Amino acid sequence: MSERKRVWFEENNSRLDPALIEQLRQSERKTYRTARTEKIPIIIRCRKDTANEEMDQLLKQCAEDAHSHLDQEMRLINSVKSQLTPNKIKEIKDHSAVERIYYDRPVSAYLDITNEQIGSAAIRERLQISGAGVTIAVLDTGIHPHEDLTTPGNRIVGFHDVINGESAPYDDNGHGTHCAGDAAGNGAMSNGKYIGPAPEASLVGVKVLDAAGAGSLSSIIQGIEWCVDYKDIHGIDILSLSLGAPAQESFRLDPLSLAVEEAWHSGLIVCAAAGNSGPTPSTIGTPAINPFVITVGAADDQDTLERADDEIAEYSSRGPTIDQFVKPDIYAPGTNIISLLAPGSTTETELADQIIGEHYVQMSGTSMATPICAGVIALMLEANPNLSPNDVKSILQVIGEPVFNHQWGYINAQSAVDAAIRYQKDMKAPVPDTDSA
């Protein structure tokens, strides 16, 4: 029998997530002096029934180390963002207030014919709906006040910057601006050629990723928490998250998954990109692994209006999830999507050969499919404001056209809006009196 002893972080993996264990393992391989003072960004999730005295004692214990410090509380998932040394993590791991400790790991960012191809143009013309009165929060790299969002009136009704603390809308990367246009661009600078499904929807930009399109679990969670706190002030209805990280644990334990689930239960409809790690199976990232939220995969429309030649984009992540759930829940166009360009952004420099004219840029990914889905949902909510998040998801799953040999199908705006209207009529219909039969 081997006499090898397991190191402390391997013995306590029920409270330490796999990513943190790997970080501690790497720290262990370094010199003793470095390992003692190196800070690891973490998220401490506390028990919901933690007494105030226990919590105060934990925070005091964390602050005792000169090389460690606490950053910000994240009430949405009952957690605290921190930077602690390995020794301090070892010291607090068994504290009575601690439920689990996570590595605050990195998270990254993942229309010409699209408007007609998914049926949003036809439904706008037939029913005169365009997302008016509905607000989509785009959690991404920010949002540039592009003319397609500010003409004839400014539809950017709110902005929050987790990364740099700025108050005016901006986007130093460009990914978030493209996503905003995918959902709600009105084609002002293209004579209506490049237009999103919901060109009259309002937008809230939440900058949770930096100029390189990178962030962390905690920055995304802080952005989600802000949306929950300010949803009534800004009238937020939908969250669009074209970002993610590899899923390493069940949706029940993953902190980003837990955050979007709380947002869902607060009444916000959450659309999350499946990821761009296809065609390998079981590559759905977090937060898209959560069974409550609407996970969006990308289709390649082959640049034609006909759907017969459409297929799942090769890059689009496949299910099942780490918990063996069937995902994505719906597919939307995501390949070669032309949308808004943020001038002076990283995108303008790195994708110079994909710029269309002066105001647009072409991108591909589940990042594009997700806000397109959010735009269709805005049309559904304008048609029937009483839809709950669960109602919306159920309708999308039922009306999805089964063209990909997949359990769920391809989004169709006309069918989705018609179903939303029927649902409202059914809810108003009198209930049959079965007792008198």
TrEMBL record:
Active-site residues (renumbered): D140 (charge relay system), H175 (charge relay system), S367 (charge relay system)
Catalytic activity, EC: 3.4.-.-
Annotated SUPFAM superfamilies: Subtilisin-like
InterPro entries per record: Peptidase_S8/S53_dom, Peptidase_S8/S53_dom_sf, Peptidase_S8_Asp-AS, Peptidase_S8_His-AS, Peptidase_S8_Ser-AS, Peptidase_S8_subtilisin-like, Peptidase_S8_subtilisin-rel
Keywords: Hydrolase, Protease, Serine protease
Residue ranges of every copy of the Peptidase S8/S53 domain listed in the record: 131-396
Source organism, top-level taxon: Bacteria
One function term, GO molecular function aspect: hydrolase activity
Family matches, as PROSITE patterns: SUBTILASE, SUBTILASE_ASP, SUBTILASE_HIS, SUBTILASE_SER
Similarity section: Belongs to the peptidase S8 family.
Name of the protein: S8 family peptidase
Source organism of this protein record: Salinicoccus siamensis
Phylogenetic classification of the source organism: Bacteria, Bacillati, Bacillota, Bacilli, Bacillales
